[in-house]
Amino acid sequence: MTPLISFIKADINNSDSTVVYDFNMDVNKGDIVYIVGKVGTGKTSIIRTIIAENRLKKGIGKVCGFDLSTIREKEVPLLRRKLGIVFQDFQLLMDRTVEDNLDFVLRSTGWKDREAIAKRISEVLDAVGMGTKIHKMPHQLSGGEQQRIAIARALLNEPEVIIADEPTGNLDNETADGILTLLQTINREKETAIVMVTHNRNIFEKYPGRVFVCKDESCKESLNDEVIDLALTI
């Protein structure tokens, strides 16, 4: 099986400085992978490299068939169509309805048929339990509802991988639990791989997956609870 994401001896950069050296990681269909560590240890820089926002200058990095070291600017949108990206701060367009937010994404990624667009929007909203919110404005929704809409947006193009950067960071515990249950359901039913940045140990204890620990300019998979504890100690 060819990994959906593969890094071999890759240096991860933030602007012009290297924040993680010799990064190795494979993510396969159906995997749940957590990237954990203190602030400033390179977690988000890894995410930005995966989505080709940060250029890979050293080592091997491949995501959904694209080579991160040689990818051209015009290919980046093609790569991102294969990824569903969920942010901590939702990043919805606040001046448009839920429907118009999702319509904008589909049209931006090449969809043209009005009926097909309407059908897909209905499908993803139903999948995240937000079918009745289609005509709401984002400010009329709770934080948890906005994050469900953000997940619906991430599902529009049937991604192979969902990339989630602290997706529950702005949510209370009960709401966060609902979001994580939803992501786990998507993972289980669709075998969509999930790569999630988090600093919350409760998340990967309750929803088990592989854990990569960022610490001291490295990021390595760890099965050692003491190593994870040390990495998350502030």
Q: How would you describe this protein?
A:
The protein has 234 residues and is an alpha/beta fold. The chain is built from eight helices and ten strands. It has helices spanning 43-50, 76-81, 98-108, 114-127, 143-155, 173-190, 201-206, 225-232; strands spanning 5-14, 17-27, 32-37, 58-63, 66-67, 83-87, 161-165, 193-197, 210-215, 218-221. Strand 9 (210-215) and strand 10 form a beta hairpin. The longest helix is centred in the C-terminal third of the chain and has 18 residues, at 173-190. It is globular and about 45 Å long.
What's the mean pLDDT score?
Answer: 92
Strand order of the largest sheet: 6-7-8-3-9-10
The total beta strand count reads 10
Tell me the number of helical segments per DSSP (H or I, 4 or more residues long).
8
Please indicate the percent range of residues in DSSP E strands (runs of 2 or more): 25-35%
- Which regions have little confidence, pLDDT < 50, spanning 5+ residues? none
Shape designation: globular
- What is the rounded Rg? 18 Å
Comma- or semicolon-separated keywords:
234 residues; alpha/beta; 6-stranded mixed beta sheet; 4-stranded antiparallel beta sheet
Helix and strand arrangement:
Blueprint: E1 5-14, E2 17-27, E3 32-37, H1 43-50, E4 58-63, E5 66-67, H2 76-81, E6 83-87, H3 98-108, H4 114-127, H5 143-155, E7 161-165, H6 173-190, E8 193-197, H7 201-206, E9 210-215, E10 218-221, H8 225-232
Parallel strand pairs: 3-8, 3-9, 6-7, 7-8
Antiparallel strand pairs: 1-2, 1-4, 4-5, 9-10
Helix pairs in contact: 4-5, 5-6
